[in-house]
Design a protein that fits this description.
Number of strands: 10
Number of domains: 4
Structural class: alpha+beta
Number of helices: 10
CATH topology of the largest domain: Butyryl-CoA Dehydrogenase, subunit A, domain 3
Bound molecules: flavin-adenine dinucleotide
CATH superfamily of the largest domain: Butyryl-CoA Dehydrogenase, subunit A, domain 3
CATH class of the largest domain: Mainly Alpha
Radius of gyration: 23 Å
Helix content: 40-55%
CATH architecture of the largest domain: Up-down Bundle
Length: 428
C-alpha cells in the first residue's frame, strides 16, 4: 500500500512530530486475490489439460516450433483454445476476443505456463504482441483482416517478427532493411536474422527503413505487414545448439508489399515498436513464473522420490528457488495490477523480464545439480527412460542464455530500468 499525506497536516508539538490527521491523498491498495470468475477459469483450464493433453504432459521451453509433429499438435490445441475463446481472451469481442479482464488473462497465462499447454502462442508473435499492437495502431481494415485470423488458431494466424538484423540487435535503430515507396507499393530489400518461427509463419511484422535520409535513424522507421508467401522471400533455418529449429534468417529481395500494409503512420514506427516491445516483454512475465513453478514442483517430487531431499544443500536451494518464483509472481502481479488501474507500465515489463531471466537461470542450474548425470540427456530424447522430467531441466539449462537475450538483452532491460524507473539520465 502506498500512502501519501500533505505536510501541512504534520504539526510539531513539544519537540515531537505529530500527525494531526492522516488524510490520504492517494491510497492505492494492491489486491491480488482472484475472484470467482478467475478461479472458475482456472478450474476449466485444468479440466482442459486433463481432457486434451497426454497424462504427465511436460514440455521443454520453446520446442514446439521445431519438429513438424510437435508443431501440428500445438496447432491442433491452438484451435481448441480458440473455440473456448481463450487464445486471445483479452481482445475486443468483435475481433475474436472475449473482452476478458487482465486478471483472467493472467490466470490463463499462469496455467498455460504451469501445464506447458502447447499452441498458446502460435509462433509467439501474433497472439502476444502483433495483435495487441494492431488493436492500437492498425486501420479498421487491418483489424478486420488480421485479428480474427490470429484468434482462430488457424495457420493463417501465425506470425513472425522481423526486427533483428546482422548489425542491428540491441542497436535496433541501426536496421538497414529498406521499404521504399513505388506507387502504391513498398519495395522491401534487406536481411533479418534470429526470426523465430519464420518457417511456420504466414505473416511477418517487420520493422524497415522508409526514410533513409531521416535526420535521426529512429525517425525513418515504419512497421509493415509482409505476406511470407510473397515473391523474393527466402527463409533459411538456423538450428540452435539444443538442436531446435526455432530461428531463421530471412532474406527479402525486391519484395513488393501494398502500401495498405503500413501499420500506423509512416516513419513513426519507432514509437509503435516501443509499445510492441513492451507487450513482448510483458508477455514473458506471467507464463515464465508459471513454467518455473512447474519445474520446481517436478524437482521437489524428484528430490522426494530419490531421497535427495535429505541433503540440506538441496533443501536450501529448492527453498531459495521457491522464494524467487514467488517474488517473480508478485512482480508480474504488480505490473498487471497497475495496468488494471490504467497505468501504462514503462520500466516494469523490463524489470519483470530481467528478474524472470535470473530466476530461470538459477532454476536451471539447481535442476542440473539435483539431477546430476541424468540432466545431461538431450531434451530431444525426451521419450527415453533415462531422460528424467522429459529433458526439461536440460532444455532449460541450454536455453536460459537465449531467454535472457530474446526481446532485448538483460543489459538493455537494465538500461531501461535505470532510465525510466530510477530516472537516471540516458546513457550513450
Ligand atoms: C530465443 C530468441 C528468440 C529471438 N527471436 C527473435 C525474433 O523472432 N525476431 C527478431 O527480430 N529477433 C529475435 N531474436 C533476436 C534478439 O532480439 C537479439 O538477439 C537481441 O536483441 C540482441 O541483439 P544481438 O544478438 O545483435 O546482440 P548485440 O546487440 O550485438 O549485443 C551483444 C552484447 O552487447 C550488449 N550490449 C549491446 N548494447 C548495449 C548497451 N547499450 N548497453 C549495455 N550492453 C549492451 C548486449 O547486452 C549483449 O550482451 C531472438 C533472440 C533469441 C535469443
Amino acid at each position: 500500500m502506498v500512502c501519501k499525506f500533505p505536510t501541512s497536516l504534520i504539526h510539531k508539538q513539544k519537540g515531537f512530530i505529530r500527525i494531526k490527521h492522516i488524510l490520504p491523498l492517494k491510497v492505492l491498495k494492491m489486491d491480488f486475490r482472484s475472484g470467482e470468475k478467475e478461479e472458475t477459469l482456472r478450474k476449466e483450464i485444468r479440466e482442459f489439460v486433463k481432457e486434451e493433453l497426454p497424462s504427465g504432459w511436460l514440455t521443454a521451453m520453446l520446442e514446439e516450433e521445431s519438429r513438424d509433429e510437435d508443431w501440428a499438435f500445438a496447432m491442433s490445441i491452438a484451435k481448441k483454445l480458440s473455440k473456448r475463446g481463450w487464445l486471445t481472451m483479452s481482445w475486443p469481442k468483435e475481433y475474436g476476443g472475449k473482452g476478458a479482464s487482465l486478471w483472467e488473462q493472467a490466470i490463463y497465462l499462469e496455467e498455460v505456463g504451469y501445464w506447458g499447454i502447447p499452441g498458446t502462442s502460435m509462433g509467439v508473435s501474433g497472439v502476444a504482441w502483433v495483435g495487441p499492437s494492431l488493436v492500437l495502431f492498425g486501420t479498421d481494415e487491418q483489424k478486420e483482416k488480421y485479428l480474427p485470423q490470429i484468434a482462430s488458431g488457424e495457420p493463417d494466424g501465425v506470425w513472425c517478427t522481423g526486427y533483428s538484423e546482422p548489425d542491428a540487435g540491441s542497436d535496433f535503430a541501426n536496421i538497414r532493411t529498406t521499404a521504399i515507396r513505388e506507387g502504391d507499393e513498398y519495395v522491401i530489400n534487406g536481411q533479418k536474422i534470429w526470426t523465430s518461427a519464420a518457417h511456420r509463419a504466414r505473416w511477418m511484422w517487420i520493422a524497415a527503413v522508409t526514410d533513409p535520409d531521416a535526420p535521426k535513424k529512429h525517425q525513418g522507421i515504419s512497421t509493415i505487414v509482409v505476406d511470407m508467401k510473397s515473391e523474393g522471400i527466402t527463409v533459411n533455418p538456423l538450428v540452435n545448439y539444443t538442436g531446435y529449429h526455432i530461428f531463421n534468417e530471412v532474406f527479402l529481395d525486391e519484395v513488393r508489399v501494398p502500401c495498405e500494409n503500413l501499420v500506423g503512420e509512416e516513419n513513426k514506427g519507432w514509437y509503435q515498436l516501443m509499445r510492441s516491445l513492451g507487450y513482448e516483454r510483458g508477455s514473458v512475465g506471467v507464463g515464465a513464473f508459471g513454467y518455473g513453478k512447474r519445474i520446481l514442483d517436478e524437482l521437489i517430487m524428484y528430490a522426494r522420490e530419490t531421497g535427495l531431499f535429505q541433503n540440506p544443500e538441496i533443501r536450501h536451494k529448492l527453498a531459495d528457488r521457491a522464494i524467487e518464483i514467488e517474488t517473480a509472481k508478485m512482480l508480474a502481479y504488480q505490473t498487471i495490477w497497475k495496468m488494471s488501474k490504467n497505468v501504462i507500465p514503462v520500466y516494469e515489463p523490463s524489470r519483470d523480464k530481467v528478474f524472470n531471466d535470473i530466476v530461470t537461470e538459477r532454476l536451471a542450474i539447481t535442476g542440473t545439480e539435483i539431477m546430476g548425470a541424468y540432466s545431461q540427456l538431450d531434451p530431444l530424447n525426451r521419450d527415453s527412460r533415462w531422460t528424467k522430467l522429459k529433458g526439461c531441466v536440460e532444455g532449460l539449462y541450454w536455453l536460459f542464455p537465449g531467454i535472457s537475450i530474446a526481446a532485448g538483452t538483460d543489459e538493455i532491460e537494465r538500461n531501461i530500468i535505470a532510465q525510466f524507473g530510477l530516472k537516471l539520465p540516458k546513457s550513450y
